[in-house]
Amino acid sequence: MAESTPETHVIDYRAAEQLLAARDPRGAVKLLDSVIAAHPENTAARLLRARAFFASAQLRSAELEFQLVLEREPDNAFAHFALARTYERQARPDQAKRHFRLAAALDPKPDYLAAARFEEEGD
Prior knowledge:
It holds the Pfam family TPR_2. The chain is mostly helical.
């Protein structure tokens, strides 16, 4: 097996993006595992791996990875939104609502605002 270098990690990251786009999330996770092993601080790689876990219905792994991203980047609206979707798929609506609302507060995009359902304050 070829030695890993920073260049091969960039190539693996880009290939993982392509695999995820091509609906091969498990292949993406495999590529990203080596990138993250070499660069555990790389938040972009962790976010991509979280998305791949979510796409392959590995919801607990996705949840943990999104949480790790948010520990490092608490203002990452996409990570809050994606974590909320993960909680939603796990039938955990209270946690989902909290993160949908954080995402919308950080970035008032229409899809984030719709998911946050602020008009339902009576909940």
